[in-house]
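FW: tagging you since you asked about this chain on Friday. Here's the raw sequence from the shared folder, copied in full. Didn't touch anything.
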Amino acid sequence: MPHGAPDFWGISYRPSLGSAQIGGFARLAIANDTIVALTITGNGIVYGGHAYCKGTASQRMDEYHIYVDGIRLGSQWFEKKNTYQLTTPYSSSLYELRYDDVNFEYAIGIMPNITFETSLELRYRETQGNTPLLRGEIYYTLI
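HL: got it, structure written out here
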C-alpha cells in the first residue's frame, strides 16, 4: 500500500531523506566573546529547533547566529527581536520564543526547512560580560 501524499494519478511521492537526528548542546557562554554552540557537518535539512539563554543578569544585547555553509543568516539581539516582534517561523531565520528581562531568560526558535550543503553552525555572541547558561537542540536530517 502506498504511503505519503498521492499525486494527481494516485502515485505516492515521498522524498528520500535520512533518519531524523537531534544535535544538542548545553554549556556556559564566554564573557565578551562569540562561541560555537553546535556544528553539524554534511548535506542536510533542518526540521526546526530551539536555543535558550539563562543569565544571572540581563543578556538583552546578546544574540545567537546561524551559519549555513559558512554564510551568516540574519540575526538580531534578543531585545531587537522583541521590539520588532520577530516571533514566528519565517519572520527570521532565528525567531523569538521567550524574552524575559526580569528573570533573565531568553529563547529563540530555529526556522524549519533550512538546507545546507557542507555545514550548519549555531553561534552565541555574549556582550554583557557575563557567562549565561546556553542550551538547545536542532532537529535535522542528513541527505
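FW: The first strand starts at residue 5 and ends at 6.
HL: agreed, and The chain has a mean pLDDT of 90.
FW: great, closing this out.
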